[in-house]
DNA sequence: CTGAAAGCGCTTACAG
DNA sequence: CTGAAAGCGCTTACAG
């Protein structure tokens, strides 16, 4: 491997000039620049990143904790990681993956990675209600940005990017309404998580706005599973709610609803319109396909990187992005 | 941040001694070691990784190209990444994620990451038939290990770890046989990929061994989609093949088969036993669940890291691991 | 516009 | 067992 010194010798300039050619080319006279660049190319020179990082104390690496929740598979993680990676690379940075215990037990790992200068900062995701990581990192002065809000806190520590769940539900309700549905149920999650409340609120408000009934049409599932989605759908139908639309809080729940409809000889997208959330690979697995709310991954990733790497310190930044309804057969006009 | 120098001053030893306390503690006298360690703890010292890497020219980072194939979602990628990360961390290393164009167009990216010392080497996955990356990397002398074989080459460049697809199919056939099935079909893939041939071969051989028919029972799908799995299953049934078992090359294809069976009023796991490959999250999405062949992710990851970081140069290493059959309702005794 | 010098924080032979 | 010195490959003020 060629070094800066060798390039300098070859181009008959000082190392400083070569460094400038790379990092501040405008400082060089045109002919010098050209000569240096020729030498760089000829020697196939690539700056050693470790030397640079040591000097500048910036590693241009962003830490991301790869989640491991067997009970809640992150079905769009590959999409998210690809988008995050691509966004980081657009600024000359990369993503460093690591594992850590959940919650506060994982903080020493975050701290260590930062202290040993393996990363400049972190992107947090899989945010939980009362997530302790944000406050901890902020207190330590470790740079981070969160994908997802920490709910149930008056003011969230640090910057975040999230997708507007309420607007998503409203979009789904409006779409079902426009395809002729008038009794639209909502399938929610177990305990009152912030995310669930957000999406439920959007359903409720939009139904009210459209003059649709909501009483008895919102149900909570015990867990995010297909079986629960099916069970709850069965309960709604058995109770004689006469529903003709279902907005489910997740694709998994929505698929459960579809299964129950099929089992009863009802055609999803015909008698009952169904929508899910996140536009996971599951949405394309059923037939007809599941209408679902897509998270704008590229935009999310772009904002995360921009905030983490660009925002001047102390500027709390918050970005709420809009989901997009991907329409498939499960919500075809009835 | 405390530096080595400050720790040395605090412990009243030379920097060299502190370095030894960290990297070769056996060289220190017990009391010196203890004194140094106390100072390290007191000053909350963490060695700067960039300085270390600059000196040793090892970054302890392993590159992994995050795939982006919308048409072939990597359904177990999160499992793989978690296992890979954990295995790397057990050796003090981490995973660096990056994106690159597919095929030979991506090689400059690999080269650049290595030349600029962002990574020591690479883990390749999503290996394709005739994958050009292996030969290229080997030629450049860039360390790598492949998860998955490059088929159609007499001798594959570089070390690899893979899962025995033939053994997997054989396991599935034997299981279906043991639950009473005697006419077991195989759902394969479009063109003759090495992976597809491998798995098809296992089905064929095991059927022959058990004295089961194979003629007309092996079909190729045009793509890895649910619809194709369903279409091909319908064709088999319409042709009066009287099948009572289906070994599918992927979970997606298997799910298609299940859908078609359900559509015809047949109960999977009752009249027809069905198995898939990879034990993706999809396997748990259907009801009854899909029996599928699980790849031993932790073992795969462990071997990959061991080969990449431990093998002395020039030792070509090849590891073929065994999949495990995860039995669910789709293959319950008929 | 260009260059000589110092220094980022470590590790590695080499002496003692 | 411990220490003084050199050096990994860059960048950053600072002079000229």
TrEMBL record, chains A, B:
A Pfam family name for this chain? Peripla_BP_3
CDD domains with a match to the protein in the record: HTH_LacI (cd01392), PBP1_AglR_RafR-like (cd06292)
**What are the UniProt keywords, alphabetically?**
DNA-binding, Transcription, Transcription regulation
InterPro entries the UniProt entry points to = HTH_LacI, LacI/GalR-like_sensor, Lambda_DNA-bd_dom_sf, Peripla_BP_I
All copies of domain HTH lacI-type, residue ranges: 2-56
Q: Name one GO molecular function term.
A: DNA-binding transcription factor activity
Keyword Chloroplast set for record: no
Transcription: present as a keyword of the record?
yes
- Stated name of the protein: LacI family transcriptional regulator
